[in-house]
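User: Sequence in, structure out. Go.
Assistant: Echoing your sequence, followed by the structure tokens.
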Amino acid sequence: MRAPTALSASPSYVRDAAEPRLTERALTDLSAGLQRWRLAGALARLDIRNRYRGSVLGPFWMTASMAVMIAGIGLLYSTLFKMTLREYLPWLAVSLLVWTTINQIVVDACGSFIGSEGVIRQMPLPYTVHVLRFVFRNAIVAAHSLPLILVVFIVCGVFPGPEAILAIPGLALLAVNAFAVGLFLGMVCARFRDIPQIVTSVMQLFFFLSPVLWKPELLGPSQAWLPLNPFFAMMETVRGPLVEGGAPPIIWVAALAYSALACTVALAFFIRFRGRIAFWV
């Protein structure tokens, strides 16, 4: 019998050739990327600075446009729905701000890797750094509009109760989903460049299907089906504690289920296709 050669007798070589340890490498990338969150934050601030270079108000232009939209839509739809401004305006302000943040996250997630093409090709950074960069960038932009909610509450004389603290877990869920969506859509859109247009159209459709401008009560008994809309569930975990005295348990269950599904799908895709990202961008 022929003695095994040194190459064939090496268990590490054979095991690595048959099982390239995709899960281990993906988890290592995830851990290393999260540890470099300061770098991701610095890159996100640089993105904001470059995007609004030469602008007088910078990101506050979005705040100004949001204020005009809240005032205009509030005056019109409060009349259509036969509601007082004091009742409708706080609900509308929170709804528009949260929906705009969700919409921007989903649309911007399509370019989380494509937008970092130059860095990916030139520097050996963990891929999750680029996803964190996208999450921080959208968080910074959303934070510029947060004072609008306080202004509307003061003007209308309506303030949330102690249950408003539950909006913090809702924001945490939103951040987790932003990371998962950025990871998943970033890979898919890097491979198929026409997906961003489809995502934009789908988000426009869900804007009208979700209770952003209208209240769920207007659906009557059919509002029981609203938790099947993942965008409604995520939005309600933040909006409910601020303007409705809290979100019902079914909303939290649905939001947690959608978050777990999003994280599972994103991680599965990242494990399987992480090695191809550099070739796709």
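User: And one key feature?
Assistant: The chain is about 70% helix and 0% strand.
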